[in-house]
């Protein structure tokens, strides 16, 4: 099954708790998997209602997801 994983490189949950390592392992073993890592330490960077919102990263994430869905 195709999958995308998105996270911030210094996010204490994604990077700090080992999720990024699990994501890399999944991408390395899955036929159709992509990992996108964004700079920063914000966990919910794509939620515009929160102070952690990062407009540039959210825009890129959204475009990648839309492209992913359009290809399927």
Structure description:
This protein is an alpha+beta fold. The chain has one domain (3-70). The protein has two helices and two strands; from the N terminus they run βαβα. The protein has helices at residues 19-29, 55-70, and strands at 3-8, 33-38. The protein has a two-stranded parallel ribbon with strand order 1-2. Helix 1 (19-29) links the parallel strand 1 (3-8) and strand 2. The longest helix has 16 residues, at 55-70. The model has no long low-confidence stretch (mean pLDDT 97).
List keywords for this structure.
38% helix; 72 residues; alpha+beta; two-stranded parallel ribbon
Short description:
The protein is built from two helices and two strands; from the N terminus they run E-H-E-H. It has helices at 19-29, 55-70, and strands at residues 3-8, 33-38.
| Content of β-strand | 15-25%
Number of domains as seen in the coordinates: 1
Determine the number of helices (DSSP H or I, runs of at least 4 residues): 2
Average pLDDT score: 97
Uncertain stretches of 5 or more adjacent residues = none
Query: Helical percent range?
Result: 25-40%
Distance between the amino and carboxyl termini: 11 Å
Q: Care to count the β-strands?
A: 2
Shape: flat
User: What structural class do you assign from the helix and strand content?
Assistant: alpha+beta
Instruction: Please give the order of strands in the largest beta sheet.
Output: 1-2
* C-alpha-based Rg, rounded: 12 Å
Instruction: Please describe the biggest sheet, giving its number of strands, its sense, and whether it closes into a barrel.
Output: 2 strands, parallel
Which sequence of SSEs, written as H and E, runs from N to C? EHEH
